[in-house]
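Colleagues,

Please find the record for the two-part complex below.
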Amino acid sequence: DIQMTQSPSSLSASVGDRVTITCRASHSISSYLNWYQQEPGKAPKLLIYTASNLQSGVPSRFSGSGSGTDFTLTISSLQPEDFATYYCQQSYSTPWTFGQGTKVEIK
Amino acid sequence: QVQLQESGPGLVKPSQTLSLTCTVSGGSITSGGYYWSWIRQHPGKGLEWIGYIYYSGSTSYNPSLKSRLTISVDTSKNQFSLKLSSVTAADTAVYYCARGAPTIFGVVIHYHFDYWGQGTLVTVSS
């Protein structure tokens, strides 16, 4: 199985901050990396697919980059509704696997 | 707008079979090359992909669950289902159904989960 490791596991930030979350794969996964946002008690929501493609309806302050084993999710200016947990997920090979999550909290 | 809705018992006894159904509305389960998936989340933990089914009936399962798992599809009802046998407390989780949507790179296709059900908590307890 391909292991996905996110860092940090949690972070505290203020509204307006630029936030970067990193995801590392145990093997090269080309650009087959997706990002999701999960608010408490809700289903995950797709933000970014294949590393850098913004899902329809997702604000442009979210962006993704990377290829191979190292990927980043960036929120350019954190908004109150962005406080949530973020997961990366590889679709390079089954079993599809997720990172452990990064919780973004209010400073 | 595609919607997915999980249904099934919220409480299952140890050693019994967990059964859930996902009803798809707003689109046909037979269209578009989608992989209809189950994903679970243990309380306070991360996400675990369980498996998927194509409308034709072809499946892919997580090897960690494969010996206990059956995913099936009923195209006449626009539903797909999950059966997990011999459950233990370790199977207590929120179970989500989701649509795996394809992105095509030449002859290679990769997937992302673009629509999700709201999730249903299944507790394994006597």
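The mean pLDDT of chain B is 96.

Comments are welcome before we finalize the supplementary table.
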